[in-house]
Amino acid sequence: MTDSRDEPTPAEDQSIRFRHLERGDMPLLADWFTRDHVAPWWQEPCDPASLEARYGPTIDGEDATEVFIIELDDTPIGLIQRYLVDDDPACSRTLAAADAPTPAAGIDYLIGDPALTGRGLGALAIDRFLTHTWRRYPTIAAVLVAVQQANRRSWRALEKSGFHRFWAGTLASDDPSDHGPSYLYLRERPQPDAAPSQEQDETTLSTDGHHQD
Is pTM, for the whole model, over 0.85? Predict the structure, then answer.
């Protein structure tokens, strides 16, 4: 989970779009997962067979996790995914031990090209993605993110997109990406009278595929 450095340049005027992951994106994932700024935090095998085993069911609509490619001006720049915490019993038990609010969704994200970090694009993508996530999951109370404490770029992106830290410790998780001291970040559902921002209005989410928002 990676994003920007401490002082990103303004990105509010950037055209961010999300589209569902396709099998043609697998080589892109393999490249991103091996990048130096991604590999320590996104610890997944990236050989073709492993990628198919992990993401093929999602592409085919057989896995409840929804995975999207982040596009900037129609160019793929990263990945973002979402899921209901209650759909993953192990994740649900882990977060329950931290007294996390329920029901909730979780997200994971990365910016694949290191040249595009430091521009605020990760924080912008997260903020805009949540606009669609509230609609996709109308009953959730919050969105939660687990991030390693050493991954400062990632949790700074969360803070810039409106999340706040509510827990610190070691997660009881079998996921290699959760090993080591972690933080849990939370963003609560906006109040019903909260007006959408101009940036949110300009964001698009492709609905071609198995899941519709």
Answer: no
